[in-house]
Amino acid sequence: MAKFTTKIKLYLEANSKTWDLTKVSLQNDGSGDYIKSWTYDIAKPTNEQLASYETAGNAAEKNGDIEAARRSQYGSWESQMEMIYKDQKNGTSTFKDHCDKVRSDNPKE
Q1: Strand ranges (E), the chain
Q2: 48 and 92 inside one domain
Q3: Does residue 11 sit in the same domain as residue 58?
Q4: What domain range is 94 assigned to?
Q5: Do 4 and 36 sit in the same domain of this protein?
Q6: What is the mean pLDDT of each run of 10 residues along the chain (109 residues)?
Q7: Strands 24-28 and 33-38, sheet pairing
Q8: Contact call for residues 63 and 2 (beta carbons, < 8 A)
């Protein structure tokens, strides 16, 4: 199940807005998350509108996890630069092969 904040962020993006903690405050009094305050210049989303972002929210969260895994597997920028330098010097494709493997091991939806 997609996080409440993820669905709100997707709603905002669909309305050409970005997440701003000064314009929205969330709360949970034990019966579920809800929007406590909303000061955007667009209508506050209804529960039904937010529910419509469930599938997209799940995909966004999964892709976020995949991006984090890719970042850790690519290695430091120093090691990437070293691979690129050696590839150019030796006419090899180590860096490209490494990137292709990271991407194939962690495919996005």
Answers
A1: 24-28, 33-38
A2: no
A3: yes
A4: 75-109
A5: yes
A6: 96 97 95 96 97 96 95 96 98 98 93
A7: antiparallel
A8: no
